[in-house]
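Please check this.
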Amino acid sequence: MSTETAAAGARVATPPPAGWEEARSRVYAVGLAAALPAVSRALADADAHTLAEPLTTRTDLPAFPTSSVDGWAVRGDGPWQVVGRVLAGHTPPPLAEDGTTVEIATGAMVPAGASAVLRIEESTRTPEGRVAGTPRPQPEWREPGEEAYAGEELLPAGTPVDPAVIGLAASCGHDTLRVRRQPRAALLVFGDELLTAGPPGAGRVRDALGPAVPAWLRRYGCQVRPSDVVGPVADTLPAHVAALRGALAGADLVCTTGGTMHGPVDHLHPTLEALGADYVVNTVAVRPGFPMLLARLVDPDGRVRFVAGLPGNPQSAIVALVSLVAPLLAGLQGRPMPVLPQVTLAEPVSGRGDYTHLALVRVDRATGTAHPLRHVGSAMLRGLAGADGFAVIRPGSSGEAGARVPVVPLPLTPGERSW
């Protein structure tokens, strides 16, 4: 009897589900333990990566006294005799004598010996061609180290790289950054009943997750190529084993859709057993999205890969993404565990007994008020299309209007920080 055939008969009862908060913590911890290696990336290629080491300055910022205005760098009392000009990008000679000045441009290096910078618009010329005026009492230049001193840590490891971080790194003198390699992800779509084109009908439904899940994964910082999306995979155990084995060959994370229960054509669990996977989480006490899972495979060489089993119902699958995949990917990229912002419920949201309820909401960010949405069944996507995130209603409670509750934000752009 083959391993795959033996596994087919090894259907076991599902263990008690993990609590939602426990599941998030557990998958983050295993992701962080398997954090991806650091690589060097040119600044132009570092966007949406994660700092693998702190960002420090190579020089003082600014590196030299820098004029904040267009005007005159003066020494001593005026009126001043003009002895030159200083433009940005040049090193000026010192102002050696009192009563002298040089014209200076914004961003130019202030010459040694200067006692003040007089704004051009607040200066006049005497008949003899000297410069007159009264400098403001506050210095009109930036001192070396005013923003940061050489070697100072500006951002910690684990910071997502965005255009602002790239600009800061360039200003510090960096040409490359040490960042975590981006996770490679793949998607297997399970279900013979799915259509991949055209409208649903005649007992068959359109696959909504095959096109959508890769886009969500990219927003969480993954690389997903069109060839990394496979399916629908035939509803047989050999087909599932072959598809998952093939996807794992090049991916750090493989997401699957459907097959997370123990029905007659649900082959994910025996497939994981056949491939020697161990469960990190097997079902979560959350609604919707209860039959989700995360499994781990460790190769003899120590390479770690993960399989995230997403339910087949579309909204439940996205609940699984925000519940298990998002914290896992934060760990793999060396980022901190995502901290959930708080919102105020504008309307009541029912609880789900012993289960955490993730309720789709639209958030008024000006007031921090969350408005529950309609069309939020586990098979529906209409509500999700207008949502900002999921309000978290903890087990044994209900969300009363005016209550403060956590919210799981939906990412809007690749590598975006939570709002």
The chain is about 20% helix and 30% strand. The longest helix spans residues 314-332. Residues 1-12 have pLDDT under 50 and may be disordered.
